[in-house]
Design goal:
By secondary structure, this protein is an all-alpha fold. It has one domain: Methane Monooxygenase Hydroxylase, Chain G, domain 1 (Up-down Bundle), CATH 1.20.58. It contains nine helices and no strands. It is globular, with a radius of gyration of 19 Å. It starts with a helix and ends with a helix.
């Protein structure tokens, strides 16, 4: 049995807390669907999918409120300590980030309606599609780490956010060049700039979830810590 397997085998929650853990994963699955729909609507100019994404954000908000209330009740009734307390804290932080990822997906859906597809900008479309795939992969990886409580994989996924940041910077440069070449394209390029910013923020929030996994399992707050140091420790 590997070190990670041993760690996971030894880490078990009481039944009521396990239920919360599973509900967070269900919320994460819904957020993944929203993000995938938003990216498809953006790239293909599909107004119907965009509408579904915008309307679907309410379900994510509802889940966040329900889980938040449940966590507060556990804190008040059971006064958890040690790993149980860390789970409740990690859940509260994770659902906040998931709700905000849902908000960013909704924003992308709204922008998709304005943009009506990116067929006339094939290079930009390819770059945005690549960034979208990167953040989708990172969100999926972060949720898998949360599901398995896998610290080592959490570090790996968190470090991948740097690549998404570089893609975001490259898109901003291309958008700026396009606006300088064609002033008439400025309104559409500004919309795309906000889309890219939303995708970059989703990547950041996925990295946050990885940080919560490390805190939950190891009891160590790694925010504002270089990932090279975290990995070495």
């Amino acid at each position: 049995m590997s070190k990670t397997d041993t760690q996971q085998a030894a880490y078990r929650f009481p039944e009521s807390l396990e239920a919360i853990h599973n509900r967070v994963l269900a919320m994460g699955g819904l957020v993944e669907q929203q993000l995938g729909g938003a990216i498809t609507a953006l790239l293909e100019g599909d107004a119907e999918i965009a509408r579904q994404v915008v309307e679907g954000d309410h379900a994510i908000d509802t889940l966040e409120l329900a889980l938040d209330e449940e966590c507060v009740h556990i804190l008040a009734r059971r006064q958890p300590a040690a790993s149980d307390l860390r789970l409740v804290i990690a859940v509260l932080k994770t659902i906040t980030d998931l709700e905000r990822i849902g908000d960013e997906a909704e924003r992308i859906g709204r922008m998709a309606v304005h943009l009506g597809g990116l067929a006339q900008y094939p290079v930009l479309k390819a770059e945005v599609a690549s960034l979208g795939e990167s953040v989708r992969r990172n969100l999926n990886g972060a949720l898998n780490c949360f599901a398995r409580l896998d610290v080592e994989q959490a570090v790996t996924v968190a470090r991948q956010d740097a690549a998404a940041d570089r893609q975001y910077d490259a898109i901003l440069r291309q958008l700026t060049d396009q606006m300088m070449r064609d002033p008439a394209s400025v309104p559409r390029m500004m919309d795309l700039m906000w889309v890219a910013r939303s995708l970059e923020r989703i990547g950041d929030r996925s990295r946050n979830i990885c940080e919560y996994v490390i805190y939950l399992v190891r009891g160590k707050d790694v925010r504002h810590t270089h990932w090279e140091r975290v990995e070495s420790e």
